[in-house]
């Protein structure tokens, strides 16, 4: 069977998600660190109506139960201790926003407009990320 046909079951949910999705703005809140590999260091995104609706639509399109959706932009995936996570978080704040922690931005904008989606296969067990495919 051609490899493209194996992806067909993913195309229907992606198409459904696309129909639900509208162009909307994502606004960054702050850089934080979590406790897991996939939520090591990230930028929280404001839980505004459009992003929350898109998250709910994606969960529905892929047949997933509705869960607490935390919109974010991952900056670092890693298995490191809390001190290293905190240091990485502070390094990200410095690099993205400049000196101090008042979030005076060096970014050209403190968010972006979502205009498209990209579907990825991302097995959580693969910490090398080698098997991730678009």
Question: What shape does the CA trace take?
Answer: globular
Unreliable stretches: 1-5
Looking at how many chains there are and whether they match, the oligomeric state comes to single chain
**Widest beta sheet: strand line-up:** 3-2-1-4
What is the H/E order?
Answer: HHEEHEHE
Number of E-type strands? 4
Number of contiguous helices: 4
Q: How much helix, percentage-wise, in residues?
A: 25-40%
Overall mean pLDDT? 80
Category by helix and strand content: alpha+beta
Q: What distance separates the N and C termini?
A: 19 Å
Radius of gyration: 17 Å
Reported for the largest beta sheet, the result is: 4 strands, antiparallel
Q: What portion of residues belong to β-strands?
A: 15-25%
Describe the structure.
It is a single chain. By secondary structure, this protein is an alpha+beta fold. The protein has 4 helices and 4 strands. It has a 4-stranded antiparallel beta sheet with strand order 3-2-1-4, covered by helices on one side. The longest helix is centred in the last third of the chain and has 16 residues. The chain is globular and about 45 Å long. The two termini are 19 Å apart. The N terminus is likely disordered.
């Amino acid at each position: 069977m051609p490899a493209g046909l194996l992806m067909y079951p993913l195309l229907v949910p992606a198409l459904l998600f696309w129909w639900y999705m509208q162009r909307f703005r994502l606004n960054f809140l702050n850089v934080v660190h979590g406790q897991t590999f996939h939520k090591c260091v990230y930028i929280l995104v404001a839980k505004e109506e459009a992003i929350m609706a898109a998250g709910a639509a994606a969960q529905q399109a892929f047949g997933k139960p509705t869960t607490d959706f935390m919109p974010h932009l991952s900056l670092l995936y890693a298995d490191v201790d809390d001190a290293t996570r905190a240091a990485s978080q502070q390094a990200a704040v410095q690099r993205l926003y400049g000196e101090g922690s008042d979030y005076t931005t060096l970014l050209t904008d403190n968010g972006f407009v979502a205009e498209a989606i990209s579907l990825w296969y991302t097995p959580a067990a693969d910490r090398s990320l080698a098997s991730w495919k678009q």
